[in-house]
Backbone:
């Protein structure tokens, strides 16, 4: 066989390999993504922040990609039922988790018997929204500011009681962080969720709690007294309210919601998803809809920034959990 024939044979062989790769199932899947309806799995019931964000984003994504985007609620185990469902779904970008930060930054250190490793079985796609906590006191507590509250708490005997949404909840861990930074003693009273904790604070069963900005109506109605917020900058909802880090530098405790996919989802699919999501989050329609839904801020970041945020909060909360020796089955 001549060299010329051999070279031609090699050329066509290489060309065949190239085009086969281009039209392989994984490659063609990424090129035509999405090829069917996308499911956004919400880990909490209708009305909570992840669910509200999921529905707002779903409506805009459906419009942008000309494909149905539906929201499905799978509730229980502090978000782990939803996370497990998505982790075990096909890694094709059509089943995604709209997950709150606690699933990834608190649950891995809190639950001793979980069969799901969220940090290895799910991959971060894009940030969606963020919010702050507001240090909220019973309306009859005789303080008018954050500094007055700290002084009052330091001298209270017996110690003031605070409410949380349960052992190991962000409400609990953030208050423990504040206790450590301010040098105050407060008694923890865990409730089964944020709503009963709020009711207890309004009713005077406890003196104070960290609440979401979704309680702004109670604050504006004078049923709760807002003392400070937990972001690095002041909240849009309470622009006159100081942040705790203005008194205790680097104190920060934001709430964030993100989009996650099963591990091994093609990179091209993840990139396309992120592009669609960021485009949706950039529209004034979505920005205002999120803000009207409890003061949620549209949150756009790169995948690298998202991963760094997860690691930062894991370090923060795991340290508190270890110090308090909290463990849940």
Residues:
């Amino acid at each position: 066989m001549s060299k010329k024939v051999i070279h031609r044979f090699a050329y066509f062989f290489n060309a065949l390999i190239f085009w086969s790769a281009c039209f392989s199932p994984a490659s063609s899947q990424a090129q035509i993504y999405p090829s069917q309806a996308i499911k956004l799995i919400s880990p909490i019931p209708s009305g909570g922040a992840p669910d509200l964000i999921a529905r707002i984003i779903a409506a805009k994504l459906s419009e942008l990609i000309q494909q149905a985007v539906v929201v499905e609620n799978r509730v229980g185990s502090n978000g782990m039922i939803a996370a497990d469902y998505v982790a075990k779904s096909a890694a094709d970008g059509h089943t995604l988790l709209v997950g709150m930060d606690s699933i990834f930054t608190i649950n891995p250190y809190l639950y001793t018997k979980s069969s799901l490793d969220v940090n290895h079985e799910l991959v971060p796609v894009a940030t969606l929204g963020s919010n702050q906590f507001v240090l909220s006191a019973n309306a009859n507590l005789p303080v008018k500011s954050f500094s007055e509250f700290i002084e009052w708490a330091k001298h209270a005997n017996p110690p003031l009681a605070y409410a949380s949404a349960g052992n190991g909840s962000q409400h609990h861990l953030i208050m423990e962080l504040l206790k450590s930074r301010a040098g105050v003693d407060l008694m923890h009273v865990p409730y089964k969720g944020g709503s009963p904790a709020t009711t207890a604070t309004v009713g005077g069963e406890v003196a104070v709690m960290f609440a979401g900005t979704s309680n702004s109506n109670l604050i504006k109605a004078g049923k709760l007294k807002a003392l400070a917020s937990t972001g690095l900058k002041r909240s849009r909802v309470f622009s006159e309210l100081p942040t705790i880090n203005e008194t205790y530098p680097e104190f920060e405790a934001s709430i964030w919601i993100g989009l996650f996919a099963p591990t091994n989802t093609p990179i091209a699919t993840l990139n396309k998803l992120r592009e669609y999501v960021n485009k949706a989050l950039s529209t004034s329609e979505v920005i205002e809809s999120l803000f009207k839904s409890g003061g949620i801020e549209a949150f756009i970041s790169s995948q690298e920034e998202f991963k760094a945020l997860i690691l930062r909060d894991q370090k923060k909360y795991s340290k508190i959990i270890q110090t308090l020796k909290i463990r849940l089955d």
